[in-house]
Amino acid sequence: MEKFLSYIENAKTELGKVIFPTKEQVRNAFVSVLIVVTIISLFLALVDFSMSFVLKVIL
Questions:
Q1: How many domains does one find in the chain?
Q2: Looking at the predicted structure, is the pLDDT value of residue 57 above 90?
Q3: What is the C-alpha separation between 59 and 51, in angstroms, rounded?
Q4: Which residues 6+ apart lie within 8 Å of 19 measured at CB?
Q5: CA 47 – CA 45 distance, rounded (Å)
Q6: Is residue 58 within a helix (H) or strand (E), and if so which, with residue range?
Q7: pTM
Q8: Which pLDDT tens digit goes with each residue over 19-41?
Q9: Distance of alpha carbon 26 from alpha carbon 3, whole angstroms
Q10: First to last CA, the chain
Q11: Quick one: what percent of the chain has pLDDT higher than 70?
Q12: Domain limits at 19?
């Protein structure tokens, strides 16, 4: 039981050291991810469209 209580005590101590992101940091990260995902999606759509077009021309 002593190990368990020590574990809980250490967990509380470590949780006190955690630095949570601010709203601004979360918003900036969200916008960055959204922009990167959009750019990659558009690139993959362009590659897919061009490969489909080339395949139709060949066949």
A1: 1
A2: yes
A3: 12
A4: none
A5: 5
A6: helix 23-58
A7: 0.67
A8: 999 999 999 999 999 999 999 99
A9: 37
A10: 74
A11: 100
A12: 2-58
